[in-house]
Amino acid sequence: MSKNVKTVTMIPGDGIGPEISAAVMKIFEAAKAPITWEERNVTAIKGPGGRWMIPPDAKESMDRSKIGLKGPLKTPIAAGHPSMNLLLRKTFDLYANVRPCVSIEGYKTPYTDVNLVTIRENTEGEYSGIEHMIVDGVVQSIKLITENASRRIAEYAFEYARNNKRTSVTAVHKANIMRMSDGLFLRKCREVAENYKDIKFTEMYLDTVCLNMVQDPTQFDVLVMPNLYGDILSDLCAGLIGGLGVTPSGNIGANGVAIFESVHGTAPDIAGMDLANPTALLLSAVMMLHHMGLHDHADKIQTACFDTIRDKKVLTKDLGGSAKCSEFTAEICRRVQDLD
Amino acid sequence: MTTRSVRALSGALKPLFSPRSPQGYVVAVCHQTHKSTYTAPPARYGGRHTVTLIPGDGIGPELAKHVCELFRFCCVPVDFEVVNVDSTETSEDDINNAIMAIRRNGVALKGNIETNHNLPPSYKSRNSLLRTTLDLYASVMHCQSLPGVRTQHRNIDIITIRENTEGEYSSLEHENVPGVVESLKIITRTKSLRIADYAFRTAREKGRRRVTAVHKANIMKLGDGLFLECCKEVASGYPEITFDSMIVDNTTMQLVSRPQQFDVMVMPNLYGNVVSNVCAGLVGGPGLVPGANYGENYAVFETGTRNTGKSIANRNTANPTAMLLASCLLLDHLKLHGYASMIRKAILSTITDSRVRSHRCYMQYVGGIQLLLLRPALYFDITLNMSSPLCSSCTLLIWEVRAPHLKWSSPSWMQSRALDLAHRGTRNQMTVRLYL
Predict the structure, then answer these.
(1) Residue A105 lies in a domain
(2) Residue B37 pLDDT grade (very low, low, confident, very high; cuts 50, 70, 90)
(3) How far is B85 from chain A (nearest CA, A)?
(4) What global pTM score does this model have?
(5) Whether residue A10 is found in the same domain as residue A131
(6) Contact residues, chain B, for A126 at CB < 8 Å
(7) How far apart are CA B276 and CA A214, in angstroms?
């Protein structure tokens, strides 16, 4: 059987980025995944016309491969250019941010059996960046909701639910207060739900979701929502399973582009010391494999990773152990090879 | 100045200095009444206060009934002026009547009024209208871990102070181009300073050490940036209180992993909604936490998470704790501290008493509170043999003995309540506890 070797653009990032990217590449090699990596740097450069953009070779690589894996990027202060994440989002029109939150056996949190996915609209909403000071002391921020973006995210949410065999999709909104904007979002979700009769569709207020989420997160399955609510809820769910160090994340764009990333920070204090935990990036890479259809490899790597954490013998410092990043990686590689 | 004019002048000043109207003297001399010397609202006659009661929808009416019953039992000197607001009506007459009643009485106890979000934007949320018209700028919720309530986290003690009138709840929306809707979030310097000042003052009064401002100023640089700036400005006037800030998504993550690190939190409207609901969920749910909305001149008390509870309405399963604790906050506001602490103590004892809590029926739970409120100096248990023919006559005998300082309603009512709540032992035997 000929295996189509796929190209993936790897963006190591800053801080602990290079170490964890190397760890992921090693694990993929051990799993014999049919992936070749193209490493690229995305530090912003000023293009013709004075607009900030990502380096052209990075863009060209992404356009060709359509799939990217990104480590943490440093947010520059007073560098003059906007955050790199924002730039990537705008360049590739990454409209959906998907975060599956599954409780990790072996990494104990007060919440067990969490298994939900938050799908957040990533291009508009409260983060459109349109703000004005009308008079001195009065600021207005504009929240933008459009029909197209709402329909697109709703369609993606239902497609995701269908492809991943999820049973229900819940739209999170605050239409009692923001009648027109969230009302539009809700209407589009309802319209799209008509075409997916096999999936249960419910609507819930944002505050009710928050209230129920911290009491019993098992009642939720797939959640779809506009930008701000998505930001808050996805981090809330990440907190339920143990934080950003173990949460995978994927950004889906138009034209089939998808960039999977780890959402934690660059951790400059432990950079270069072989102490980092590659779990977040690894789980994002597993998400990527699922997205590409390589389910066997994805399951193998995920099982190896979860078994290692469950055994608790070789764990990095943030998971409660004392092993180094390389030791943790080697352990997972060993398990992956054993699973073959 | 002639003697006559001095006498005339003193005559003119006499009413001001008259001991019969000390209030008038205060008003004439000191124009600015300091907020901390707030006096009880004017709706007080013959020692009894009048409070507006808005039952609302869903579980609101039943909870309101519990409060009325409890107050009647405890002989609290509060009379409720009930104003019903019909949420199905499109005209705003009902809510305007309610607002007028609150202006009249100064204080209110309120259930949540449902907002049908499928109606057009011309139908504004009634709750929001009430808050903005009466300028109830601070929504305060005190979330405390309660003994006897099992939750994932313990030892939580957070006060959330939320700006209640502006921010994302301005209801200013328009559709310039079909398919593109803009919603305005307004942040003003005045209101941000006001809520920050309220937060720090509350922290000082309650002896709190730390105030955390929750924001998203890395994205909404102007709006939340202004809010943060105002908080920092006010913080400089309270050097004994530590001030820090946290981005809202990090805040929610920290709340579910380590909520004990938070003390007082101050935030704009929407983040306040999210954070206060998360905190309420952490301490045990919407049925346990009361909420208060304070303005310059008015105060409205309700359940903290403002739920209508449509799915559990009229089934006698709603937890009245939040509403009853809100009524205690109301009594504290009216300076009836004795009644407030008595009821609060009874409620907390009832929650920890698992025997009463295991009853599914909360009418009995409220009865439990009433029984606990009797605060007996002396009681004795009588064990009756149920099969004995003397049983019913014995029961009658018991209720002949009364405590003169307590007002009893009909004996049969007390009989059935006591039987429900004090029942112990086997089927054939019944123990009745008689309080003196």
Answers:
(1) no
(2) low
(3) 17
(4) 0.83
(5) no
(6) 185, 219-220
(7) 12
CB contact under 8 A, B181 and A140: no
* pLDDT (average), residues B206-213: 96
Same domain, A117 and A184: yes
Mean pLDDT over each residue of chain B, to the nearest integer: 79
Instruction: Write the residue in A140, A179, A232 that is nearest to B248 by C-beta.
Output: A232
Cβ contact (<8 Å) for A211 and B305? yes
Per-residue pLDDT tens for A9-27?
A: 999 998 999 999 999 999 9
DSSP string, B344-396: HHHHHHHHH-HHHHT-S-HHHHHHHHHHHTT--S-EEEEEEETTSTTHHHHHH
Distance CA B108, CA B333 (A): 11
A311 lies in which domain range? 1-100+243-339
Tokens coding B167: 């921010």
Say yes or no: A237 and A249 in one domain.
no
Is the minimum CB–CB distance between B258 and chain A shorter than 8 Å?
A: no
* pLDDT more than 70, % of chain B: 71
Residues A163 and A203 reside in one and the same domain? yes
Same domain, yes or no: A59 and A117: no
Q: Is residue A219 part of a domain?
A: yes
Statement: residue B2 has pLDDT above 60 = no
Select from B112, B233, B253 the residue whose CB has the most chain A CBs within 10 Å, as the one to mutate to test that interface. B253
| A235 & A292 share domain | no
For residue B350, the model assigns a pLDDT of 84
Instruction: Determine the Cα angle at A270 with ends A265 and A273, to 5°.
Output: 135
What value of ipTM does the predicted structure carry? 0.91
Contact status, residue A199 vs residue A162, Cβ threshold 8 Å: yes
From B192's Cα to the closest Cα of chain A, the distance in A is 10
Question: In chain B, what residues touch A207 (CB-CB under 8 Å)?
Answer: 273-274, 277, 305-306
Closest Cα in chain B to A108? B257
In chain B the domains, ranked by start, together with CATH numbers, are 44-114+124-172+183-307+317-358 (3.40.718.10)
Same domain, A128 and A224: yes
* Residue B25's pLDDT band (cuts 50, 70, 90): very low
Task: Write the residue in B173, B219, B286 that is nearest to A179 by C-beta.
Answer: B173
CATH code assigned at A212: 3.40.718.10
Per DSSP, the three-state class of A184 is: helix
Q: What is the dihedral of CA A217, A221, A226, A227, to 10 degrees?
A: 60
Nearest-Cα residue of chain A relative to residue B220: A129
Q: Pairing between strand A6-11 and B107-110?
A: unpaired
- Nearest CB neighbour to A141, from listed B115, B174, B220: B220
For residue B372, name the pLDDT band (cuts at 50, 70, 90).
Answer: low
A3 domain residue, yes or no: yes
State the smallest CA–CA distance between residue A169 and chain B in angstroms.
19
pLDDT of B107 over the 90 cut: yes
Cα-based torsion angle of the residue sequence A232, A235, A236, A238 in order, rounded to the nearest 10 degrees: 160
Predicted confidence (pLDDT) per residue in A23-41, tens digit: 999 999 999 999 999 999 8
Q: Which residue has the higher pLDDT, A79 or B284?
A: B284
End-to-end CA separation in angstroms for chain B: 71
Domain count, chain A: 2
Q: Which of A211, A212, A223 to mutate: most B Cβ within 10 Å?
A: A211
Q: Which of B122, B131, B256, B276 to mutate to test the interface with A (most CBs of A within 10 A)?
A: B256
Q: Which of A241, A260, A285 is the last residue of a domain?
A: A241
B164 vs B29 pLDDT, higher one? B164
- Which one of A186, A215, A241 terminates a domain? A241
Provide the pairing of β-strand A168-173 with A222-225. Answer: parallel
Same domain, A26 and A94: yes
